[in-house]
UniProtKB/TrEMBL annotation:
Location of the HTH tetR-type domain: 20-79
Organism: Actinocorallia aurantiaca
Keyword list, A-Z: DNA-binding, Transcription, Transcription regulation
Keyword presence, Methyltransferase: no
Gene3D superfamilies: Tetracycline Repressor, domain 2
Lineage top rank: taxon: Bacteria
Protein name: TetR/AcrR family transcriptional regulator
Sequence segments annotated as region (Disordered): 1-20
Pfam family, one: TetR_C_43
């Protein structure tokens, strides 16, 4: 590389941005396949959804555990970033909380099968769980605080309690077609409202 070439540095940045976008598209595709077929879905299904070859996936994620961990982290970040955006978009803090909880439910569905897939790597799972709590608890707390401050919901609920309750309502939903976890979670969120 010629140090005197002013264009040399500019050329590398778009490639990094393109690579990041491509990796995010691949992770979105993997998450969608995991929701439909579980974390043991064939890599070729993920590659087909992402529009890439299986070699591309293995180049980025040499093992299934690497891919699952990356999808899980990607979903955590998307859920964390959505909270403030939803709060800003309104129309009310309670509505933003409800939309965020919907995203959280989607995330929990994607997470299905993670523990079994990572059973051989307990330290990786522990680190992911800590990251999950570190990133999502403050977002949920901010949404709860805003809705309570606006007078829309009761103020005596902790973010951990709500997230744990939603998680518990989602257990087993994927294996029982008669059970609609999203409906029950919606009732839970509606039940947070203060009586008029």
């Amino acid at each position: 590389m010629n140090e005197g070439d002013p264009g040399a540095g500019r050329e590398a940045r778009p490639r990094r941005a393109d690579a990041r976008r491509n990796q995010e598209a691949l992770l979105d595709a993997a998450a969608a396949v995991f929701v439909e077929s579980g974390v043991e879905a064939p890599v070729r299904d993920i590659a087909a959804r992402a529009g890439v070859g299986t070699a591309t996936i293995y180049r980025h994620f040499p093992t299934r555990a690497d891919l699952i961990i990356a999808v899980y982290r990607h979903q955590i970040e998307a859920c964390a970033e959505a909270g403030p955006a939803l709060l800003e978009a309104g129309p009310t803090p309670h509505a933003a909380l409800g939309r965020w909880i919907d995203l959280f439910v989607d995330f929990l569905v994607t997470k299905h099968g993670l523990a079994a897939a990572l059973r051989s790597d307990d330290t990786a799972f522990d680190a992911l769980h800590a990251h999950f709590l570190d990133r999502l608890l403050p977002v949920c707390a901010r949404l709860l605080d805003a809705a309570a401050a606006s007078g829309e919901i009761r103020s005596d609920l902790e973010a951990y309690e709500l997230m744990r309750g939603v998680g518990n309502l989602c257990i087993g939903a994927e294996s029982d077609p008669r059970y609609d976890a999203r409906r029950l979670v919606g009732l839970l969120v509606a039940g947070l409202r203060r009586p008029h």
